[in-house]
Design brief:
The structure is a single chain. This protein is mainly α and 363 residues long. The chain contains 17 helices and no strands.
Amino acid sequence: MDPDRPPHDDAHDTDSDGGPPMPGDTLPAEVPPMPSPAIRIAQQILIPALIVVLGIGAALLFVMVASGRESIEDQVSRLPGCGGADQGLWGFQDPRYKDCWRAAFNIAGRLDQIEEPRERAHLHEQVAVLLNEPSALDAKEGKLSGYLLSVVGRLGAEGGIEILARWLGAASPEGRMGAVKGLLAWPDDDRPRGERAAAEALPLVYGLLADENPDVAFLAAALVGDLALTGDQASIEALRKAMDAEGPERRYVRWQAAIGLARLGDAAGSRLVAELLLDRQELAKQADQVRQDGGRGPMRARSQDDIMLSTLMAASDFTDPVVWTKIERVAKDDPSPKVRVAARQRILERKKRLETDGGRLSP
């Protein structure tokens, strides 16, 4: 070691003599800069997650395409083997159950393609056989029964009302909900209220207005308002009880009951429709849907629009002047163009009906 030179680490010195590196010496490789935290997260988490999501999406797309290629007859042919398919032991799903409810879903979605009366009658017979075995179909998940009940309602075949009425008492909420949806879909809505086939099931629907599942109760309120005759006291009393139900989870049940009452000419329901459901300032005071963070804020304008538009859809049956005065104000002053247009359309429809009925609206 030369005492005239500064000390150095021979183990890390490229030049054994301590001088500058000479041509031919091996130079240390440059160390690449460390990637930023965002890039490391993308490399280690986001990109692999994206690959997994794309793989699942591709698999689902393949299943959908494969199912779409099958004919209605292929889907119907799966139904006879569904009688014993359910959720399985200890919650494990019977593979047949998933196959069956997928077939029922596809049939319900493509039912309009079956136009031949004989084919529709044959489909009803096969579905009826399955729905007459509620112990086999009324599983906890209830997807299969829900889709099949929808098919029964839309087919509107003889004996269908009896099947739907029986399923109004199903153990699963999906079964009860499917039965109500089937009655709502019964294809005779062009007939006067008192002549609609599903009206015979109304006494069984009243109890569902207090169903433990708010979605079932909401649909039941819509069905009663859709089928009952103006002045029907049994329906009015049942809807009034639903309108008085307490709890934030029953809010939409109360509102749907009020719409049904307004359709039946009830003053209390008409007031709630005019003073809340068609009043944007009052709606703005209501809490909005639960957010992802679990909180609630004031009702947004879009939610207000949705409620007002859905209320106006039923306005053709409203008779109370209080409601129509409010609709005229909405048609003139509401800030939403969509809501104003819908209100004006209801007013024009009402004028035409008044002219047709000689100045009065028939029940």
